[in-house]
Every structure is written in structure tokens, then in C-alpha cells.
Amino acid sequence: MSEMNAAQQTQAEEYAGHLMAYDKKEKRAKGVTGIDADGNLTLEEAAEENRHRFMKVDKHGNILSNFGKNFMYQFNNPSGFLFYNMPKDTKPEVAAQQIEDCLHSDDEPARRNLSTHRIYNDHLFNEREIDWRQAERYGITPDQLRYGNNLERMLQGRQSTSLVPVRFESELGRQKGDAKLSLYRSEDGSVKFDVHFVRRALREGEEFRGYKLTADDIKNLNTTGNLGHTPELIVDYTTKETQPCFVSKDPLTNEMFGLRRDRANLVRRVKDYTLSEQEFNDYAAGKEVKVTFTSANGKKVTTGVQMSAAERGMEFLFERSTTLSQQDKEAMQQSHASRHAVRENHTAKRNNSLKPH
Questions:
Q1: For the chain, what are the domain ranges?
Q2: What share of the chain is helix, strand, coil (3-state, %, to 5)?
Q3: CB neighbours (10 Å) of residue 40?
Q4: Are 82 and 103 in contact (CB under 8 A)?
Q5: How confident is the model at residue 70 (pLDDT cuts 50, 70, 90)?
Q6: Predicted TM-score (pTM) of this structure
Q7: Contacts with 131 (C-beta within 8 Å, 6 or more apart), sequence order
Q8: What is the mean pLDDT of residues 110-137?
Q9: Are the C-beta atoms of residues 115 and 45 closer than 8 Å to each other?
Q10: How many CA atoms lie less than 13 Å away from 256 in the CB half-sphere?
């Protein structure tokens, strides 16, 4: 049997359903057939006669695609769609109706059931959507952003990991300095850069959304990056409404972030570790909680976790943890240094292989 026939047979055996997308703008579900030359998702009406053109999904929710494993990261405006695995024994028309009915209703059990068929895409943007001409005007190159996972974080709607030297002309004159970068979608749908310059260090008594920072607050923010409690912050300056909020600070730019507690996604499980009731209550109150879980390589990892307003979710503190012993931190630093050396060695070998001989 040829390799191509073997691959086709394997794909047929793994095939468990079809990929369907719910268009948030049209509020309709359709079958996904691929990506066009401009990077847009191509869809067909959810009809039986179109089923053979829909992309296939295996029993694990992996997309069987000629576009490769990273299909979900290759098309424009990924945040405009929700994706679902339609079981192959379900008629396309029925599956589309179920998706639309559940998303348009307040039936929580039905919505939870639908979520079991959801295929998640953690990207809000696609690299091909980036305005590289704007990047060039800012003195930014693609290679700068690809270094150190910067671009990946930005495509997820987060800020770059490291600082990047930026320069550009604005209404205020020439702007220049080190900054973190993020992406946002403008009103016309295009993707632009947002620049987060380094700010001065926080001072005791300084206010953030109506809350006056204490010396202990600043110490916490400088240590873990998080405040450690949930003060009342102004969430609407027109009505002066306040809400309990998580507060965080970026360690490189000193930018402050607030996240309403009632809008935070508070999880009870960390990998294979389940928070106790007391631990969950502490976590929900903004405190650091010590956890031990099994990593992907099977090793036990002990660290502190805390809700981060900057990351808009749970953050693993590692060396910044205040709950670990010095011995634990030193062991963790050695492990990280070892992994960094391996990555540097691989990078050097790859670069050498690209040099002309």
C-alpha cells in the first residue's frame, strides 16, 4: 500500500465528524471547507449535499486538514467564529440548527452540552492580518516579534513578553523608547499595533481607579505582580460605580490592570490538582495559593498561583512566588537555566546550518 493510500485510510479510520463554524456577525452556523487565497475562512451552507466538502475532525477534536496541524491559526479574524465538531451521524442541517438554537437561548444545560463539541482557538488575530507597513514605520521587524514567544502572545490578544525598541511620529511629536506591544482590531476591521511604553515606578499614595495604593500594595505588586486582595475600583467614571477588582502590574512597563471580580474566570482545577474550598476562597480573594501538580513530562511541580488582571486568568508565579522556600526557588531556577541552554544550543545549530558553506 502506498504512503498516500495508507494516510487516507488512517484518516478515514480517525474521521469522527465535520468542522462547523458559527459566524458571530451573521449569527448562523455553516460547514467549514477551507481558507481562500486572501486568508478568509471558506464556508458552505449546512446541507447534506455539501457534507463531502466539509473539513473532517477526528475523535479527539483534531482537524484532519491539508493545511496542516495549525489550520486554526491560519485564517483572518479568528475571533469572529465559534467552532464545533459535528458528529458524522448527525445531518448538517440538524447540527447547524442545534448550534444556533443553543447559542440564541438561555438554556444553560443545552449550552453546556453544546460546549462539549466546541473546538477552541486561542488566537484572536492571524499573523497575515498584521499591518507590517505600520510595524516598519515603528522600527519593528517580524523577527523581533517572533523572538521569545512575543508574536504568539500578541496573536492571543496579550502583550509581548519582552520590551521592543519603538520609534514613530505622532501628533505629540516623535515618540521613542522601549515598549511592550499588543494588537487590536480597529473599527474598519484592520489589525493595528498598540504601544505600551515603560512608565515611572509606582509611588505610595498614588491612586488607581479611585483606590489609593499603600506601601504594602506596592511591595506586593513589585514582588508577584499582583495586589493580593480585591479593592473597590471605579468601573464607570460617569456613574462612579465601583466593583471589587483584581489588580496587577506589568513588571517591565509598570502598566496597571484591573479586572472585575464578577467577570473573572475562577477555576478550581490546576492541571491534576483541585483547590480545596479554603484555597479556592483565598484564590477568589486575590491571594496567592500554593499548589502541586503533575507537569506534561510527568514531574511534580510546586508553585504559587494567583489571579492576574494583566493575564485575565490564573498565573503561575514560579520564582516570584512568596509561598516557596529558597531551596525550591533555586531548584526551579536551575531547571529553567538548563532548558534555556538547550534552546540556545538548538538555535545555534539551526543558525549554523543555514549559513552558506
A1: 13-119, 127-197, 207-324
A2: 35, 30, 35
A3: 13
A4: yes
A5: low
A6: 0.66
A7: 190, 191, 192, 193
A8: 83
A9: no
A10: 20
